[in-house]
């Protein structure tokens, strides 16, 4: 069965590791879409996020590297201090271009690249985080016909990113953390 969605892009910042773990751990190993993740990290330290997530989920989890390709049932994590972009040929680009909203990697750049490459076959998920990264990217996802899920700011550890995404008025679903993985599963296994 082909999923109606090819890629799910998730973004988080403060409180994000907990939120990402919660969502990814609830997805099955045969999840029918590729996943890409931006988490704001301290660029001065090597990240162990992929290792942590790999131990807590059935999905294949890998820190993204140049030349990686999107794959069904695999989560690629942006490395510290690199923007992660997705190309139409399903390849990954990593750049060190300027900071966006004072951060690198940027949710906005990830969402914009996913929107351009996959249009209505993309889902953006905004999770716990401070700041407003992701709000511009949400607009790009919606403009191209994609779907937007935002963690309910009332139950996010940090409400900044979800609040900024909600303020666009473009979210399709505003869900408690426990509801996000079941919603992704339902959306990505629905028949076209």
Concise overview:
Helices cover 31% and strands 21% of the residues. With 192 residues, it is an alpha/beta fold.
Describe this structure in words.
A 7-stranded parallel β-sheet has the order 3-4-2-1-7-8-9, with helices on both faces. The longest helix has 13 residues, at 177-189. The relative contact order is 0.20. The chain has 192 residues and is α/β, with parallel strands linked by helices. Helix 1 (16-25) runs parallel beside helix 2, helix 1 crosses helix 6 and helix 3 (107-118) runs parallel beside helix 4. The mean pLDDT is 93. Helices cover 31% and strands 21% of the residues.
Spell out the key features of this protein.
alpha/beta, single chain, 192 residues, 9 strands, two-stranded antiparallel ribbon
What is the CA-atom radius of gyration, in angstroms?
Answer: 14 Å
Distance between the amino and carboxyl termini: 10 Å
Largest β sheet strand count, sense and barrel closure? 7 strands, parallel
* Biggest β-sheet: strands ordered side by side in the sheet: 3-4-2-1-7-8-9
Mass-distribution shape = globular
Low-pLDDT regions: none
- Residue share in β-strands: 15-25%
Structural class: alpha/beta
Number of helices: 6
Residues in helices, as a percent range: 25-40%
Mean pLDDT: 93
The H/E string reads: EHEHEEEEHEHEHEH
Total number of strands? 9
């Amino acid at each position: 069965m082909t999923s109606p969605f090819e890629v799910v892009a998730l973004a988080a910042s403060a409180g994000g590791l907990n939120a990402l773990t919660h969502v990814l751990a609830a997805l099955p190993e045969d999840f029918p879409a590729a996943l890409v993740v931006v988490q704001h990290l301290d660029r001065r330290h090597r990240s162990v996020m992929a290792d942590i997530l790999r131990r807590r989920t059935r999905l294949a989890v890998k820190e993204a590297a140049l030349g990686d390709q999107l794959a069904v049932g695999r989560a690629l994590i942006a490395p510290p201090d690199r923007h992660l972009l997705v190309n139409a040929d399903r390849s990954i680009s990593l750049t060190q271009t300027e900071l966006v909203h004072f951060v690198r990697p940027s949710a906005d750049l990830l969402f914009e690249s996913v929107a351009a490459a996959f249009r209505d076959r993309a889902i953006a998920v905004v999770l716990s985080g401070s700041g407003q990264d992701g709000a511009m990217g949400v607009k790009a996802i919606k403009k191209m016909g994609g779907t937007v899920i935002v963690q309910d700011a009332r139950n996010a550890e940090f409400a900044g990113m979800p609040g900024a995404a909600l303020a666009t008025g473009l979210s399709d679903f505003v869900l408690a953390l426990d509801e996000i993985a079941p919603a992704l599963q339902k959306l990505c296994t629905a028949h076209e």
